[in-house]
Design goal:
- The chain has 372 residues and is of the alpha/beta class.
- The chain folds into 2 domains: 210 residues, Spore Coat Polysaccharide Biosynthesis Protein SpsA, Chain A (Alpha-Beta Complex); 155 residues, 60s Ribosomal Protein L30, Chain: A (2-Layer Sandwich).
- The chain contains 11 helices and 18 strands.
- The strands form 5 sheets. Strands 5-4-1-6-10-7-11 form a 7-stranded mixed β-sheet, sandwiched between helices. A 5-stranded mixed β-sheet has the order 15-12-18-16-17.
- Helix 3 crosses helix 5, helix 5 packs across helix 6 and helix 7 runs parallel beside helix 9.
- The longest helix has 14 residues.
Length: 372
């Protein structure tokens, strides 16, 4: 079963108080729209991307996605979110459809996987997180009648469904006078209660101007090391069985090096070569995890901490996908964040270049920092 994703990007974002579409605001060096789009563009679980947007934003969104490798289609949104999603559903080509808010750029691959898996098993999958705040009900708006938390969830996106089922529900919703705030409401109204799947607290929707705080910083890092004999292969602090290892002054952990550079770049603190020169004998053969701890101490002293990490390892051999979870867990323990906030993906370069000829391994990493 193949999967389409619909990105709901047609809203005006009035509550954010920006002159233009809030999705064109930048996180680091890219727009919110690009950040959200890139999550699905990189996902192996997604086969088609449909962007529902306004006529005013159509050209700029097309320009921002001109280098997309996945099939990407644009559809004009309507006067309401319901109408926009309906327009997109009508052209979706695949059996499974995920519907996602364009203003949720911090989505992790694991949440996409949770939604798709839930749809395959239960016909629907709604990303949700248990409420951590107590909810109060007041009949008169002045006094609390009841407080409760247990059994309540914060509903997020993506929200996944079998295409034919959710399209049928939306056809009925278009004939109704009711206002629907999300897709699960439409599904529940006309078919059955939607199934909950595990979301992620970092999958926050950017709604108000305060959500666009400059206290959130994004960094990127890249590194490449040559493969040689008689060296251990260390990636993210995990030793990988292989007949070659990476050449370098330290343990040459190319993944951890890229992550460190991403963290440092977010605060414009230079790169690891500046902080840990390869001419310094003190760092000869040192574990890159030790250096990562030093980098974390540096940003802690600046008042920041890591919010999430995303990295792609480029290697022809060995095949690394079976080690991705262990690498995520290892890095998460060092960084002191949940493993679900460390996204590790692995790819080959199809025989192209140093990496493709099995002469090197490279890594591109991104991170987000927030005030500690």
């Amino acid at each position: 079963m193949k999967t389409s994703v619909i990105l709901a990007c047609a809203g005006k974002g009035v509550r954010a108080e920006f002159k233009d579409n809030k999705l064109l605001q930048k996180i680091g060096n890219i727009t919110i729209f690009e950040k959200t789009f890139s999550v699905f563009e990189k996902s192996n679980l997604i086969d088609e991307i449909i962007v529902a947007c306004s006529k005013e934003d159509l050209d700029v969104f097309k320009t921002l996605t001109k280098n997309a490798t996945k099939k990407t289609t644009f559809v004009l949104g309507g006067k309401t979110r319901t109408e926009s999603v309906y327009n997109a559903l009508k052209i979706a080509e695949n059996d499974i459809v995920l519907i996602h808010d364009g203003a949720r750029p911090f989505l992790q691959e694991q949440t996409i996987e949770n939604c798709v898996k839930s749809v395959k098993e239960f016909s629907s999958g709604i990303a949700c997180c248990p409420c951590v705040d107590t909810l109060a009900y007041s009949q008169d708006g002045k006094t609390i009648n009841k407080s409760v938390r247990q059994g309540f969830y914060n509903v997020q996106t993506p929200q996944g469904f079998l295409k034919d089922e959710i399209l049928s529900c939306y056809e009925k919703a278009m004939k109704s006078d009711k206002t629907y705030t999300d897709d699960a409401s439409v599904y529940g109204e006309f078919l059955r209660p939607a199934h909950i799947c595990e979301g992620d607290a970092s999958n926050k929707k950017l709604t108000y101007k305060s959500d666009f705080s400059s206290d959130v910083l994004v960094g990127t890092g890249f590194d490449l090391h040559r493969l040689v004999t008689d060296r251990k292969l260390i990636l993210g602090g995990v030793e990988i069985p292989h007949d070659k290892g990476l050449l370098g002054h330290s343990d040459a952990d190319v993944l951890t090096h890229a992550v460190m550079d991403a963290i440092l770049s977010a605060l414009s603190l230079g790169d690891i070569g500046k902080h840990f020169p390869d001419k310094d004998p003190a760092y000869k053969g040192i574990s890159s995890i030790v250096l990562l701890k030093k980098v974390l101490e540096i940003i802690k002293n600046k008042g920041y901490k890591v919010r999430n990490v995303s990295a792609v390892i480029m290697a022809e051999k060995p095949k690394l996908s079976t080690y991705a979870e262990k690498i995520s867990t290892t890095l998460a323990e060092v960084i002191h964040i949940d493993a679900k906030r460390v996204g590790i993906t692995c790819t080959t370069l199809e025989g192209v270049g140093l990496v493709g000829r099995e002469e090197a391994i490279a890594c591109q990493a991104y991170c987000m920092l927030e005030k500690a």
